[in-house]
Amino acid sequence: MRVPSRSPGQQPGQAVAHTAPAVAPTAPAPTASAPTAPAPTASAPTAAARRAPTAVGRCPVPGQPDLTAYRAAVAELLVEVAALADASSTNARQVLLDQRLREPAIAAVLNATPQGFVGARETLLLEMTRYQPNVRSSAHDLTALVRIYLLSRVDVMWWRDTPAFLTDSQVDTTTDLVDLEWLRRRGLLAFRYQEQPATVLGRGLRAVRRRLLPDSTPYTAGLMFRRARREVIALLNDVAREFAAASPPATPPLWVTSLARSAEHQYRLRRLGYAAMVPSGHCLGWAADVEMAWFARFGVRDALADLLLARQEAGEINVVDEGQAWHLCLAPTARLRFRRAYEAEMGG
């Protein structure tokens, strides 16, 4: 089969408009209800005070890969992968990837990851070979799998020198992470979350609540670990306040569905069929997932998407559209600012 030629309309370096659908993929019913955090009490800035993207996101940093060109090249690649989605196109897809991944804009990022270009390429090909559609997975098709994998490589390129949390015990005990519940009870969080129920009774209670109030909370299992880096907490608080300022009064606060997790748990998720990439920004502690699909019922999903993409353009975060939730990763250049913000808000 002939590999389709590149679309002439989009050139590397141009901004890519967000076109993700607002409807989330079907997911299995999680069980049990855990109490959610109360609405934030912190004051929110006015909509007029929202920051404008700075030049950092639009101009490549000297000596670093051009992420605008990378994302544009990935967007072009996804169009061509989608054209070769049928099972009979396996060989053509591999030829396509061999060609496109070697383009300078993409190769520069892959080469800067811990695996290097060859390792990243082979991992992607292996992920595609093993791919099976699964209602649990955010990768609802091969195109989504390629998108999630390639865009999430920005995370591991940024934080390649950060040791991963290998075990659940490390996540639970490290002093690099802070317990969210301690902060929530003191009214210091501007966002909400819920934990995964740990018992059969808890799962049963959540199942009952979901039947009685099916739209009261996002359709998600909740946090396995309610711990996060201080800088990530400050980032999420900042996003939550900006989102609140841009939303109608009755809109629920930003909802966080995943934070730091261990490599041990990442492999557990993979065995269950989730598109849990390895290595992952979650296992480094610098990534979080925020609910998107649920906010469509309040008419603010697109506003939240625009807010997040503006922060990406400003060079503050990396964003990966995973359908129901979006994956965010803090940029190293923003680390110091958000660490200071955390210390100012939380007192250390």
What descriptive keywords fit this protein?
alpha+beta, 348 residues, four-stranded antiparallel β-sheet
What does this entry look like structurally?
It is a single chain. By secondary structure, the protein is of the alpha+beta class. The chain is 42% helix and 7% strand. It has 13 helices and 6 strands. A hairpin with a 2-residue loop joins strand 5 (317-322) and strand 6. It is globular. The termini are far apart.
What's the short version?
The chain has 348 residues and is α+β, with helices and mostly antiparallel strands.
**Which structural class matches the secondary elements?**
alpha+beta
Q: Averaging pLDDT over every residue, what do you get?
A: 83
Oligomer type: single chain
Shape: globular
- Report the strand count: 6
Distance between the termini: 60 Å
> Can you write the helix and strand succession as a string?
HHHHHHEHHEHEHHEHEEH
> Portion of residues in helices?
40-55%
Radius of gyration: 20 Å
Low-confidence stretches: 1-57
| Strand residue content | 5-15%
Strand and helix map with partners:
Blueprint: H1 67-82, H2 90-100, H3 104-111, H4 116-130, H5 142-158, H6 168-173, E1 177-179, H7 180-184, H8 200-212, E2 227-229, H9 230-246, E3 256-258, H10 263-271, H11 281-284, E4 287-291, H12 301-313, E5 317-322, E6 325-330, H13 335-346
Antiparallel strand pairs: 1-2, 3-4, 4-6, 5-6
